Amino acid sequence: MSLWLFFRRWAAQNFHALSGRNLLLLVIGYTAISYALLAAVGESALIQSPTDFLYYLVVSASTVGYGDMSPTTVAGKWVVMLFVIPGGLGLFAIAVGRVASVFIDYWKQGLLGRRKVSVENHILVLGWNEQRTLHLIKMLQHEEKGHRAIVLCVRPDIENPLPGEIEFVRTLSFTDSLAMAKAGVDSASCIVIDNSEDDVTLSAALFCANQNPNAHILAYFNDESLSGLLKHHCPNVECIPSVAVEMLAKAAIDPGSSELHHELLSTHKGMTQYAVQYPATSAPSTIAPLFNGFKQQHEAILIAIDTGKGVELNPPLDREVPPGAKLFYIADERVKQINWSKCVDNT
């Protein structure tokens, strides 16, 4: 067996096992030997300064070959042909492959949900219900475009369903501290919990409320009894009950009700329900001027108020609106800027 064939087989067997430390040692050794050989054959122009030497070595090893620097002696040309270019080309290919492998591995880790997300003040969605979850994320993206990032955390063995659009983390349990830390549970501003199993939703909500008591936590339940249990232990958690049966009954009595409810909830179609807080710095007002102001200025309809004692639908026009109250309205798009003084002046 020739020495060259032996070297090729050895390189093929040890390429993937080549550590970063060994690769660095090879580069240093290649650089030192190249310098010594070029010095020995009298190629002083190529090694007259560290910058010139390294520049020539990189240009030759990568086969760019600008031609502004080249060997002038016969021995120097043989050194470059037999060692500088072949050895440098091999190391250059290994280094590029190693860097590409690192980036590909980093991308795969994110796609498989094994990488820690680097976002804050985000919306964390816990649970996977296939198309329903995708629809939920699309609605959140429409509302939060340019604002909060969205992180999806799931238990099933799936890949990121929306790579490049959302962050993705996979865990075996929503009460796993290490995995939930990767999803940024302690830095999320909003946590949406939606699972097919209510017991999983309950345990996840309790865990999240303990890890991040300042987050706005929403939990969807099929069984309202568990919703009451969660509210008893975590009063600040907003529980969303299933209303499918109620919508069926309402549509049976008042045909078209289901389409109305769907439009009010959808951010993609027609009029939608939104909420806004009456500024804490504003003077107390009543519903009447605000109702007229919303309609005249924004083509929006004021439908409810919450002063901290629960939502009051269709409040009377003389109902007082204290600073800090939450107002609910219907509009084609969310009203970004409201001139409250102008609204209050409406009669």
From TrEMBL:
Coiled-coil portions: none
RCK N-terminal domain sequence ranges: 133-231
Keywords, alphabetical: Membrane, Transmembrane, Transmembrane helix
Signal peptide annotation: none
The organism's place on the tree of life at top rank: Bacteria
Pfam families associated with the record: Ion_trans_2 (PF07885), TrkA_N (PF02254)
Keyword Manganese attached: no
Membrane topology: Multi-pass membrane protein
Stretches assigned to the Potassium channel domain: 25-103
Localization of this protein: Cell membrane
SUPFAM superfamilies: NAD(P)-binding Rossmann-fold domains, Voltage-gated potassium channels
Residue intervals passing through the bilayer: 23-41, 81-107
The keyword Transferase appears for this protein: no
InterPro entries: K_chnl_dom (IPR013099), NAD(P)-bd_dom_sf (IPR036291), RCK_N (IPR003148), Trk_Ktr_HKT_K-transport (IPR050721)
Main location: membrane
Protein name: Ion channel
Lineage: Bacteria, Pseudomonadati, Pseudomonadota, Gammaproteobacteria, Vibrionales
